[in-house]
Amino acid sequence: MSRALPDTLRISWPAGASAPLPETDAALDRAAEQLRAGGLVAIPTETVYGLAANALDEEAVDGIFRAKRRPVGNPLIVHVADTGMARSLAGDWPEAAERIAVALWPGPVTVVVPKGPRVPGIVTAGGGTVALRCPDHPLARRLIEKAGVPLAAPSANRSEQVSPTTAHHVVEGLGDKVDLILDAGPCGRGIESTVIDCTVTPPRILRPGPLSRGELEAAVGGPVAWPEDASPAGGGLPVARSPGTGRRHYAPRTPLELPADSTARVAELLAAGERVGWLVAATVEPQLAGHRELVAVPMPADPAGYARLLYATLHALDQRQLDRIIVDMPPAEEPWRAVRDRLTRAATG
Ligand code: TXA
Ligand code: MG
Questions:
Q1: Is the pLDDT of residue 130 over 80?
Q2: What does the alpha-carbon distance between residue 336 and residue 349 come to, in Å, rounded to a whole number?
Q3: How far is CA 322 from CA 35, 165, 280, 286, in A?
Q4: Which atom of ligand 1 is nearest the CA belonging to 74?
Q5: Could you say which of 3.90.870.10, 1.10.260.40, 3.40.50.300, 1.10.10.10 is the CATH number of the domain covering 7-230?
Q6: So what's the pLDDT on residue 231?
């Protein structure tokens, strides 16, 4: 299914204004209509751009899988306008999900809960749980309200490629596959939401993201497990896995490496005549800094700042016909966990 390039509509909600601009409301009305008619709309969220369809419309959701070439075994996140809409999609609403919703929604955290009967099986890959998230983006929530239905929305990229943090990235990756793109500028968080399984005790993080374990534990009022943590003794249920956290993911087209000594590796590659992109944590050695075949990008020293720029940097380097991308791996400390997770996956394969 290939189409002409879709319209990209700029939308904004000026700080301090009680409502979006009239043009923005008109754009959201048009997007809501497309969604109700079964179309695909690329939408901004605070994490990354999503490829949205009516979550209650099986055929529309099937369009998401086809556009992304996403394996049908990988379930989708359903975006809701508020906790009431979330509960209407859940078969059961665990205490942990309620506490997370109260403390951290709207926000970049997705709760996995038992699925209710309204959610078509295609959304959950046939499974008995559904992933729900209320995005911290007022225009995304206003769109969901206008559409009047929950929106299934994975990141708006081809499966296994780098997620989009601008509308331009969506045009480049999926431009001929969507009906409409809503452009609200660059995403503030820059990496995908934290996914937490609330069907187990203690709740378990399936995908690290912008919200830390500490923030989740404070919300839940108790411990939260990492994916690799042992299950409680005697726990009979198999641990839920997040199918989308397979090893290769989020990868740029240019091969990406995480060498222990990146200065030595970059020098070696340049000596061999390669063109190299380098995400640099510290300062670049003066003898490398001016090299014609080197594109060195200084990265922020804080995890949130780094996350915000990571995908945009990889998209930009992918445009430059480089032979290799080298990355200084950030420290093995908990605040860097989500960034390290994405870098490790980008380097696999
Ligand atoms: O920030 C985000 O979460 C973005 C924006 C657009 O909201 N969305 C996103 O969706 O990253 P996607 O499809 O690229 O990633 C969804 C993740 C996958 O790892 C998938 O396996 C997992 O959520 N997931 C979805 N439903 C699940 C379920 N029922 N149980 C376990 N994992 C689930
Ligand atoms: Mg994705």
A1: yes
A2: 22
A3: 39, 21, 16, 21
A4: 21
A5: 3.90.870.10
A6: 67
Q: Answer yes or no: is the C-beta of 245 below 6 A from any ligand 1 atom.
A: yes
Q: Does the pLDDT of residue 247 top 80, yes or no?
A: no
> Does ligand 1 come within 6 angstroms of the Cβ of 242?
yes
**Pocket flag, ligand 1, residue 193 (CB < 6 Å):** yes
| Domain ranges across the chain | 7-230, 256-346
pTM of the model: 0.95
What are 73's two structure tokens? 């075994």
Peptide bond into 202 cis (omega under 30): yes
Instruction: Please report which confidence band the pLDDT of residue 242 belongs to, taking 50, 70 and 90 as the band edges.
Output: low
Best probe residue, ligand 1, of 89, 200, 242, 308 (max atoms within 8 Å of C-beta) = 242
* pLDDT above 80 for 159: yes
- Please give the distance, rounded to the nearest whole angstrom, from the Cα atom of residue 77 to the centre of ligand 1: 5
Nearest alpha carbon, ligand 1 atom 17: 244
Residues with CB under 5 A from ligand 2 (ion): 155
Question: What fold, for 256-346?
Answer: Rossmann fold (3.40.50)
Q: What does the alpha-carbon distance between residue 231 and residue 237 come to, in Å, rounded to a whole number?
A: 9
Predicted local distance difference test score (pLDDT) of residue 51? 98
Torsion sign (Cα): 182, 183, 188, 194: positive
For residue 293, pLDDT beyond 50: yes
Q: Is residue 114 lining ligand 1, measured as CB closer than 6 Å?
A: no
